[in-house]
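Recap from last week: sequence in, structure out.
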Amino acid sequence: MRAGRAIVVLVLIALLGGTSTALAQPPSPPPPPNPSDRELQASRDAIDRRAGALGRLTAQLADLDSQADDLQAALAAQRETASAALADLDTAQAAAAEASRRADAARVETQAATVAIDDARRRLDEFAASTYQQGLDAGALGLLTAATSPEDLVARAELRDVIARSQLAAQDGLERARVDKANADSRARAALEEARTREAEAAAAKAAADDAVAQAEDAARAQAAQLAQVSAQRADVQRQLDAAAASDAGLRAQRDRYEGWQRQQAAQRAAEERAAQRAAAARLESGGRDDRRAPAVRAGSGAVQRVIDRAMSQIGVQYVWGGGNGRGPTTGIPDGLGSPLDRIGFDCSGLMLYAFNGVGVSLPRVSRNQFNAGRKVPISELRPGDMVFYKNGGAPIHHVAMFIGNGKMIEAPYTGANVRVVPLRTKGLLPQATRML
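Predicted structure tokens:
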């Protein structure tokens, strides 16, 4: 019900004509789209989230890059170790081949020693057989006691020496052949054992190196796969970030266009207000000297116009709480906001005091008392020069302004602002206005 009544009031206000010529203007084109602060913040939050994710993935990628470098270095070291093991294996295999060659040579020597032993044994056997067949007593005295003459004794002595030397030579050759064979066998066994040991060690080292290389390559492949996965994730987030940034740029461009339109509208309104202020001041000047003293009470449309003109002539004067009286702007009272005490201006009720004082109407100082100073009229019957009042819920009246026609009002709004003309606000608007003329 209340909402319907408010709509009716707005329609009536829009249809109201005014006797004032203040700030009449043709309808302006609609404003460009204006993204809400929530949309802009959501867009910025989306960018921040994606930028954060991108930062984390970039850091992870850098860490993986570092790990990949370490793995590649480890892989290179393992490959170097494998190459060294291969070289050691080649050396060991060459040593084994050399040992085999030496073993083959030792076998040849062993075979030669065996032949020598057999030869020495054969000669010793031949010597023994020959001695036995000839019936010789090869003992120490056997040959000598059988001598038949001094010459035969000498010959037998020489023979005994020859036999002894032959026997010793045969025995010595046999012994050397046996020693040579034993040495050759020992060298062959040692060479083969050493070659097999070194080849086995080299093969084990090569196998270990190959296994280490395989493990390092597996780790490097896994790291490369992880690196590729994170890189793909980072690229996807980068695309999302770029899209969010583009969307954000579009929203902010819309906001920039809207704010530009607002600035243009504000400049236009300021120019119109300055023109209206100058026109109002000129009308006041042409209508007679304004000595800022309360004249006799006037009535009629001329009085209404004068009230409006007096208010309009103060457009741009700063708001000062407690400022203003029937003669014009004054210093105010401390507002608790740190404003200097030497500021001069109007508050909302002070502006009304000055406006109506020009036609001899004396108003009370406070807005809620001004509400009860004149005749009450419904908002639906609002006319230029009527005072309109505002309050929040059940709180007392806290603000007064003057309706000037064309759906607009003039007011001294709040600390930090100036006297201005704005569209008639409906939020908090009381359903009754006060008419003084």
